[in-house]
Amino acid sequence: MHIHALDAYHHRTSLVHSLDGRVKLALALLFIISAAVIPDGAWPAYVLLAALALGVTVASQLGVGFVQRRAAVVLSFALAAVTVVFSTPGRSLLAMRVLGQQLAVTDAGLVRFVSILLKSWLSVQMAVVLTASTHFPTLLRAMRSLRVPRILVAIAGFAYRYIFVIGDEALRLTRARAARSGFLSLSKEGASDRRGGGSVFWRAWVTGGMVGSLFLRSIERSERIYDAMLARGYDGEVRSLRPPILQARDVLIALPFVLVLVAIQFVARLSW
Amino acid sequence: MLLNTVNPAPNPMHIPDGFLGLAVSLVCWILAALGVGMALWRSREAMGERQVPLMGVLAAFIFAAQMLNFTVAGGTSGHLIGGALAAILLGPWAGILTMTTVVAIQALLFQDGGLLVMGANILNMGIIATLVGYGLYRAALAVARGRRWGLFVGGFAAAWASVVIASVACAVQLAFSGTSPLGLALPAMVGVHVLIGTGEGLITVGALAFVAGVRRDLLEPAEAATGSLRWASVGLVVALAVVLLAPLASPHPDGLERVAEDAGFIEVAKDAPYEIIPDYVLPGIPNEALATIAAGIVGTLIVAGVAFAVARLRRQTAS
C-alpha cells in the first residue's frame, strides 16, 4: 500500500499551506465553533460562512471538487437528524400517515434540519482543508501547543507512523483469505460476489481469528520497534527540531479571518 | 477505489461537526478530558518509555483491525469497532488511551467524526464503551472462576454491550442538542447497534479464542488480577449514568426546555436582558446551555466520584 492511500496531506504551495500549523488549527476550530452557534434559519450568515469556506478552499489550491468530495462524508449522517423535520413544533407543511402515526413536516422542523446540514457541511469543509494542507506531524505539534498531553501526542505520532505498516499487514491477511475462499456464482443473474464458506457466524469468527493474529503481529512488531529504538539511543524522549516561531504574516492572515467570523456572528443576530 | 477499501465503512457512531450543540460538545469534551486524564494518571507508572511505541502500534492495530471485514448479506459488511477488545487485551486504561488515539486519527485523517464534537466521540467510543465492556468482561470472568467459557461469554457480552451503550450515549447527545428527539433516535440507534454489536461480539470472541490458543500468556495478567468486583461496578455505574441521563434529554416539545423549566432556569432565560428576540433562544446561550450544563455537571460528578473512589480503593490495596 502506498502511504498516499491513507495520508490526508496534499502538497501545494499555497498561502494556506504555508500558514503556521498552530494558527491554522486554531482558526479551523474557531470556524467550526462559529458555525455551531449561528442560529437556525439565519440564512445570510450561512451564505457568508459558505463564501468564507469557498474563499479558503480556493486560496488553498486544493480544488473545490476535491474538498467537496471529501466533505460529502457527512451526508450519510444526515439520516440521524432527519426526524427533527417531524418533531419540531411549528406550522404543518405536509402531513402524512406512516404506520398509523400522524406525521407532519413543520416549517420550523425544516429550517432546523437544513441548518444542521449546513453547519455540518461547512465545518467538514474546513476540517478537510486543514488536514489536506497540513503535514500530520505539524498538526501534532499544533495539538501539543494547545496543551494536549505530551504522551497522547506521542502515541498519536506512533500510531500515524504505523497505520501504514499494520494496515499493509491487514491487507495481506485479507488477500490470504480471499485466495483461500472461492467465488461462487450460484445466482442466475451472475451476482458473483458470494464468497464460499459457511454462515455469517462462521465468517465473523474467521474475521475474529484474523484480528487476533493481527494483534499478535502488532505486539511482536512493537517489540522489534522498541528494540530498534533502543539501539539508536532512545531514552524516552522524542526529540525534534524547535517549532518555528510565529511570524508576523501568520497573524496578518489570521486577523482578517477572525474579523470576518465575528462579522458573520453579527449578521446572524441581525438577520433574525 | 483504494481509499474505500482502506477506510472502514463510515460508522453511524462517529458524529460529525454540526450535529451537536456547542454546550453539549463542550460538556462532552470536559467529561472526555476527565476520563482520558484519569487514564493517563492511572497508567503513568506503567507508561514508561517502552509503553509509548507499544500503545502507538496498538492504536494502529485497532485502526487496521477495522479494515478487516466480512460480508453479511446484500452487499453490507460487518467490521470491528474495537473498544471492548482493546480494553480486554490491553487493560482499561491503556484501552482508553488507544481508542482515544484511534478516534482522533479517524477524525483528522478521514473526517470520520468532527473536531468540535471529538470530545463526544472519544467519550462514547473511547471511554464509555471501554469501561462498560471491561466491567462486563471482568464480571463474567469472576463468575466463571477460571473456566474457559468465561473468556468467551465475557468477551461477547463486553463487545456487544460496549457498542450498544455507546449508541445510547450518542442518541442522548443528539437529543440534548435538539438534533434528533430521543423517542426516535434511541430506538433507531439502539436497534441498528444491537445488530452491529452481534458482529462485534463474534469478531471479539474469535480474536480472543485465537490469542488464547496461541499466546495464552498475553491474556493471563487480566485474568489473574484481583478487583473484578470493582471493575464490574465501574462499568455498571457508567452504564447507569448514560441511561439515567436519557430521560433528561427526552424532548417534547423540547426536552431541554422541559429540563430548564423543571430546574427553574426558564424564567431566568426569559428575563435575560440581552435576549433580542422574545421567545427565541440563541443556540448555545441562555436556557439551553444552562440546562445542558446542569445535566453535564451531574454526569461529571458521577464520573468524577467513581474515578475518585476507584483511585482511593486502588491506593488502599496498594499500601
State the gist of this model.
With 272 residues, chain A is mainly α. Chain A has helices at residues 15-18, 21-37, 43-60, 64-71, 84-87, 107-133, 136-145, 150-180, 200-231, 248-270, and strands at 92-98, 101-106, 183-184, 194-195. In chain A, a hairpin with a 2-residue loop joins strand 1 (92-98) and strand 2 (101-106).
Care to describe what's here?
With 272 residues, chain A is mainly α. Helices cover 64% and strands 6% of the residues of chain A. Chain A is flat, with a radius of gyration of 25 Å. The model of chain A has no long low-confidence stretch (mean pLDDT 84). With 319 residues, chain B is an all-alpha fold. Chain B has a single domain (2-318), classed as Arp2/3 complex 21 kDa subunit ARPC3, CATH 1.10.1760.20. Chain B has helices at residues 2-6, 22-42, 51-65, 83-90, 92-110, 118-144, 149-176, 182-214, 216-224, 228-249, 255-263, 265-270, 286-318, and strands at 69-71, 77-79. A two-stranded antiparallel sheet of chain B has the order 1-2. In chain B, a hairpin with a 5-residue loop joins strand 1 and strand 2 (77-79). At the A-B interface, helix 2, helix 6, helix 8, strand 4 and helix 9 of A face helix 1, helix 2, helix 3, strand 1 and helix 5 of B.
